[in-house]
Amino acid sequence: MLLNDKSVVITGASRGIGRAAALECARQGANVVIGYSGSASSKSQVDELIREIEQLGRSAVAVGAPAEDAETGDKLVAAAVEHFGGVDVFVNNAGICPFHSFLDMPRETYLKTVDTNLNGAYFAVQAAARQMQRQGRGGAIIAVSSISALVGGGMQTHYTPTKAGLLSLMQSCAIALGPYGIRCNAVLPGTIETDINKDDLSDSEKRRYMEQRTPLGRLGNPEDLAGPIVFLASDMARYVTGASLLVDGGMYVNLQ
Question: In sequence order, which residues have a C-beta less than 8 Å from that of residue 10 and are 6 or more positions away?
Fold first, then answer.
C-alpha cells in the first residue's frame, strides 16, 4: 500500500495510461480524482472506472473538463479538496497526437495540440502545486512526457515540442517547488498501445518494425506505466526530483 490514504489527481484518466495509473494508485491505497474531457463517449468509461476503484475499497470522483482549459486544474484541485481533503499526488497525463505532416499543418491542429498537451498542463500543475504549498506537507507531481521529448518525428512536429516542454517543466518545477517538499518528475513512455496511436499501429509493417526496434520484443501497454508512476508518487522516491524515467522497453538506447 505505497499510497495509503493519499489523494491522487490524474488527468486524461478515462482510458489508456491514465486509467491504468488510476487503478494502480487505488490498489496501492489511494483515493482518485479522475480528470477527463467531459465528452459523453468518455462518461461511460469513467463510470466503469469508478466502479472498479470502489471494488478495490477506495473512492473516486470524476471531473469532466477539457485539458486545454486554463481553469481545469482549479476544478480538479477543488474536487480533491472537497472529497478527499487535499492533493498529495498530481499526475498530468492528458494529451493528444493527431499525426500530420509539417508543411501543411493546419494552424488549429497545432494550437489544439499545444493547448492540450502543454498550456493546460502548465496551469493544472500550477493549481496542484499551490494547493500542496498551502497544505504544507509536500507532494509529488508527475508528468507523462514521451520518448518523443528526446527524438524527432516527421509527423509529430506539433507534438514533440509539447512533450519536450513537459519534461522541461518538471525540471524547472523541481527547482521552484523543492523548498516546499514538492517533488516533480517525468515518465517518458516509448511506443504504448493506446487510442492515441491506434491508427498508426494498424499498419502491420510499421507495427513489426516498432516491435523489432524494442529490445524487449514487444510494444508497451498502459499497465507498464502504472508501476513507474506509483513509484515516483510514493515515499520510495522521496529523494527523487527533477528526474526523467524512460519506460520504453529499451527502444531509445537501441541505435543499431
Answer: 18, 21, 22, 25, 32, 33, 34, 35, 91, 93
pTM of the full structure: 0.96
Bridge partners of 185, per DSSP, are: 142
**Active site annotation includes 168:** no
Q: How far is CA 141 from the centre of its chain?
A: 10
Q: Which of 36, 110, 148, 159 is catalytic?
A: 159
What is the signed CA dihedral for 102, 106, 111, 117, rounded to 10 degrees?
-50
Look at residue 33 and tell me if it is in a domain: yes
Please identify which of the residues 7, 42, 145, 146 carries the catalytic annotation: 146
Q: What's 139's domain CATH number?
A: 3.40.50.720
Across 204-227, b (16+ Cβ under 10 Å) vs e yields eeeeeebbebbeeeebbebebbbe
Q: How many domains does the chain have?
A: 1
**Where in the sequence is the domain holding 135, given as residue range(s)?**
7-247
In the residue annotation, 159 being an active-site residue is answered as: yes
Strand pairing of 31-36 and 7-10? parallel
Does 254 map to a domain? Answer: no
Per-residue pLDDT of 172-224, as tens digits, reads 999 999 999 999 999 999 999 987 777 777 788 888 988 998 999 999 999 99
E strand spans, the chain: 7-10, 31-36, 60-64, 89-92, 139-144, 182-189, 244-247
Residue among 163, 206, 209, 244 flagged as catalytic: 163
